[in-house]
Each structure stands twice: as C-alpha cells, then as structure tokens.
Write a structure and sequence with these properties.
This protein is mostly helical. It is 74% helix and 1% strand. It contains 16 helices and two strands. Strands 1-2 form a two-stranded antiparallel ribbon. α3 runs parallel beside α6, α8 runs parallel beside α13 and α12 packs parallel to α14. It is globular.
Length: 350
C-alpha cells in the first residue's frame, strides 16, 4: 500500500516537510516565549515578579517576541493565501454589492479572528493589497481586537449576559459604522503606495495567476522580510512605550479622575487606555478590580475598548502603512464611537 506522501514528487515532499518544520518551530517558540523570560528574569537574575521594573522589562521582552512571531506567521499566511485570491474574487467576497454589507461581513470576520490590535495589521495590509475596499478593511481592523472571544467569555462569567451582549453589539456597531464612514470619506488615497504592490524577487508583478507553489512561498517569505524591515523600529518603540506605561498607573488614579462623580470620566478613561497596550484578556483583571472600586460599567467598557482597539503600538505600526490624515481620521472616528458608547452604557446600566 503506497501512502499519499510516497506518491508525491520528491521536491513537493521536501517543500511540505520544510513548511511543517517551520510551523513546529514557530509554535514551539511561541509556546516557550513566556516560560523562557520567566526563568531568565525570575530564576537566573533573581528579579521579583511583582516589582514594577521587572513587570516593565518582562512586558517588553515577552511582547516583542510574541508580536514579532505573530507578525511573521500572519504576514506569511496572508501573503500566500492572497496569491491564490484574485482581486475580483476578493472584492466580491468582502466588497459587497450593497452599501454596508461588506462592512458587516468584515466586522463579523474580525470577531472570529483571534488577533490583537498589532497582529491584525498584517491582515489589514493583505486585504487592502487584495483589492478589498479600504472602508471594509477598516471594519475588520477595528472589530478584530475590539470584540475578543476571550473578553466575551470573561465578561459573561464576571458580569452576566446582559453586559456581554451590550459589549458585543457596541463593538460591532463601532466597527461597522466607523469603517463605513471612513470608506465614504474616500480615504484610500491616504494609504501608503507600497501596500498596493505585489512583489516577487524584488519586482512588482501585475498578477499572481500561474505562479508555482515555490514562487508563492518565496513571495510569503519576501513579504515577511519587507514588512518587518519597514516596521521594526516602530514596533520596538511602540512596545517600549507600552511597557513603560504598563503597571505604573495606580487604580486610585482611575477612581479619582474617572469615577462616577466625574462627568468627563469616560473621556479620561479613553485617554488613559490609548497609551496602554494589552489584549482583552490581559486588561480584564484590571477592569474587574476597578469595577469593584465603584467605577461605572460604561466607563470601564470604554477604557477596555480604547486599550484593545486604539493601542499606541498599533498606531505606531499603522503609521507605517497609513498616512497621517487617515491615521488621524481612524483614531478620531473610533475614539468618538467608544466615548459615545461609554456614556450610553453609563445611562443604561446606572
């Protein structure tokens, strides 16, 4: 009995074995990342895990490797998959023939993809390069980190289905409306030109039709190298700033300046949340602690949304692919939606 692997040509078997080995190496590196820095900082160097300086260093080292691995994996996969997807087919899938349908589909896709704000950026680049309208792609970029399945589970267990349902609905509305508004503004001219280019061997190609499997893999590897080379300084600066801010703002600060007695509490919470960097799971313990101290739920949801959808590292990464005009419009529209939802929730849940 001849196996499927034995029936494949030798070169094809070698390709798949190489890809499998790369996937195993990626998963292993991602899995041991946290353990490695725990052992190095806490055991080898004897640093106290609860010390703020230790938390800052651990945050920077762990998140730099984690985001770099996510970027490598996502850029490679998106590029290879994009090479099989014609511009016309992609537009038909997510562009939509009716106004807003594409935004709804993209926001729904964002909800089921487990990307943080930074790792959603390569997928955003891939969609734009494949011809998906910019407004539709922005709906995906907003929804992917904003409506997080981990946050849904944790909110449900902590606060019940009503708050969870409001969180999901609000996140989807923000993603759909913000993407639609930005799309109607004609902001595609404010995307950096290299995003629209498909390159192979350093040369821009007009079509990916007829490429061999080897060429598609080469395209994926080249795209990883190109994008990382363009964004690595922004990545390090963004994560570094997030690490410095992380853990240094005490809970008492929130209760003083964003508490129920402050009419501008939601604005303060969003302003504090933007410089921070975390995924929804990482910010939930802080949300629970602040809730127990009496902060309104709308203020806390606005804070969490600002952290996961408008993080400073994401803005720094996006600046490499978006011109300042579009980046400012993106932040303004999304922040306005988050603030509005925060005040609305405070009224509903009061």
């Amino acid at each position: 009995m001849v196996s499927i692997a034995e029936r494949l040509p030798t070169s094809t078997r070698r390709q798949w074995l190489t890809l499998a080995a790369g996937a195993v190496a990626w998963v292993t590196a991602y899995w041991v990342n946290g353990w490695l820095w725990d052992r190095f900082l806490y055991d080898a160097l004897g640093m106290a895990p609860t010390d703020r300086l230790t938390e800052t260093i651990h945050f920077f080292l762990y998140d730099t490797i984690k985001i770099a691995l996510l970027l490598v994996g996502i850029i490679f996969l998106v590029t290879v998959l994009r090479s099989y997807m014609s511009i016309e087919r992609t537009r038909a899938l997510l562009g939509g023939k009716r106004e807003g349908i594409g935004n709804v589909m993209a926001a729904g896709l964002g909800v089921i993809t487990p990307f943080c704000s930074c790792s959603a950026v390569p997928a955003f680049i891939g969609f734009v390069a494949a011809g998906v309208p910019i407004g539709v792609t922005l709906s995906f970029l907003i929804a992917s980190p904003l409506v997080n399945e981990i946050a849904i589970g944790m909110l449900f267990s902590l606060f019940g289905w009503q708050v969870t349902a409001v969180y999901i609905a609000a996140g989807l509305v923000i993603a759909i409306v913000a993407g639609w508004v930005l799309g109607r503004m004609g902001v595609q001219r404010w995307v950096e030109p290299f995003v629209f280019e498909t390159k192979l061997g350093g040369q821009v190609i007009d079509s990916t039709a007829g490429l061999t499997f080897d060429q598609r893999i080469q395209m994926g590897l080249e795209e990883v190298a190109t994008i990382l080379r363009k964004i690595w300084p922004y990545l390090l600066v963004g994560i570094g700033l997030g690490a410095v801010i992380h853990g240094w703002v005490p809970a008492a600060f929130f209760t003083t300046y964003a508490g129920p007695g402050n009419a501008f509490g939601v604005l303060v919470a969003v302003a504090i949340g933007v410089p921070l960097y975390s995924n929804a799971a990482g910010i939930m313990p802080m949300v629970q602690a602040l809730y127990e101290k009496g902060l309104p739920m709308g203020t806390l949801l606005a804070f969490m949304m600002a952290v996961v959808a408008l993080s400073l590292p994401e803005m720094i990464l996006l600046r490499r692919v978006l011109k300042p005009q579009l980046l400012a419009a993106f932040v303004g529209v999304v922040a306005t939606g988050i603030v509005a939802v925060g005040y609305l929730f405070n009224l509903i849940l009061a």
